[in-house]
Structures are given as structure tokens and as C-alpha cells.
Design brief:
By secondary structure, this protein is mainly beta. It has one helix and six strands; from the N terminus they run αββββββ. A six-stranded antiparallel β-sheet has the order 1-2-6-5-4-3, with no helix packed on it. It is globular.
Length: 86
């Protein structure tokens, strides 16, 4: 079942950020920015998993590092091979 926030954002043609949904930006194969996170679930050199509203974002690769984190965003750098949304 889709979350009601997603449905409202889509119907009103709002961007996801306007209603607090997660936003994932992948820059090449070296950077992943996850906005509107809810914390780190797993942290390791091959997998960094971030909690988001209604699920999780899993960044897979090698030499992964949590380069920056604040209350709204997490920046993962390294050799990114995949990003999974759950």
C-alpha cells in the first residue's frame, strides 16, 4: 500500500521534499545523498543502510564511508555498485 503522503504529493504535483518523503540523489558511482532520513541502520565498508519514512535505502559497494550526516541528510561516498530502495 502506498503511503498517503506519496499519494497527496503525486495528486497535487508536489515534489517529494514538500511532504517530507525521502529523496535519494546518486552522483556517478562515488556519491549517494539520502535526504529526510531517520537514522543509520547498518554501517560497514560494503553496505550502509539508512532508515527513511516507510522503509530503507541500502547503498552497496566497497570502501563506503559516511562522509557527512545531519538531521536531514546523509552523504555516502566510495565505490557505489548499487542503491536499493525497500
Amino acid at each position: 500500500m502506498r503511503e498517503w503522503r506519496e499519494d497527496i504529493a503525486e495528486r497535487l504535483e508536489l515534489c517529494a521534499e514538500a511532504v517530507g518523503l525521502m529523496k535519494v540523489t546518486v552522483s556517478g558511482k562515488r556519491r549517494v545523498l539520502v535526504e529526510f532520513h531517520r537514522g543509520i541502520l547498518e554501517y560497514g565498508p560494503d553496505c550502509i543502510e539508512v532508515a527513511v519514512r516507510g522503509g530503507r535505502v541500502r547503498v552497496l559497494g566497497s570502501a563506503l564511508e559516511l562522509t557527512a550526516m545531519d538531521g536531514e541528510a546523509v552523504l555516502v561516498t566510495g565505490a557505489v555498485s548499487a542503491v536499493e530502495l525497500e
